[in-house]
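Example 3.2
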Amino acid sequence: MKLLKYLFFLILIVIIGGAVYFGTKESSYDLSESKVINAPVDMIFKKVNDYKTWENWGPWKKEDPTMAFTYPENTSGEGGSYSWTGEMDGSMTTTKVTQNKEILQDLTLQTPGGERNPKVYWNFEETQEGTEVTWGMKGEHTFMDKVYYGLSGMDFDKDMKEMHESGLEGIAASVAEDMKKYTITVEGVKQYGGGYYMYTTTASKQSEVGAKMGPMMGKVAAFMQKNQIQSSGMPFTIYNEWDTTNNSTIFSAAIPVNERIIVTEGDVLCGYMPPVSAIKTTLKGNYENLPKAYAKAQQYIQDNVIMVDTAHKMFEVYTNDPGEVTNPADWQTDIYIPVLVNIVPN
């Protein structure tokens, strides 16, 4: 009987000691990771704000292939939600959204130890390198949680760090893929109305056109603003000469205007483009895909035995503003290659 009594007291001491030990462990946690992603803030924010994208960039399904997601009618913005079943069931609801700045969410997890309700937060900050995204979670560990972590050897902080890092990497990869998307459509022969335009011209290597185009357009726009000249359409580029052999070009950055403007000094001038028939090709995507669009247009001309009108210059119109349309996949450029209609080459 004495031996049983000693054993009982020993077990009681271990239980009390364990309770004291685990009870003194920190209950509150606030864990987060940050990553600078080379993409516009509104693209990243939109992806995080809509739960329908989470299945694509999130790390969870790699660890639990049995996960199945359920999406209600509203999956984005305040009140948006989704849920899932798997090794651990759960759901999430967005409680606060500050556009391109912050997202707050309530997370519900059905664990073996009962329901847990941590808070999830996202912060977005524009930087010179892109967008700094912070993904965090905070809450309270129950006593049984701390006992389980202690006895099982599970490192909760480390697991959360790896989850956040993997998720942020997934967002970066997903956004990068979104920005690479493009389409090229050859629309065939179209009529372009022509008209007056303000322009400035330079010679450069073909590879330098993109770098020079922005400052040149800015110069024309500044001249028009200074002289209170209204534009009548979207800016465009005229390729006056294109020498593939020497990788050189002479091109003009132009902005259309309603009437002829008399210019007495400086290198911003007024020009006129007559109406032309042209093969119109539309690129929707980053400007770096323009060579592919031109190649497809030239192939169309060749396949359809169309004669190019060398008396007029090819040009490209930028139908939306990259300053307003931040996703390069949504940039639109209309390419026009003047052709002679109803004339078949020998």
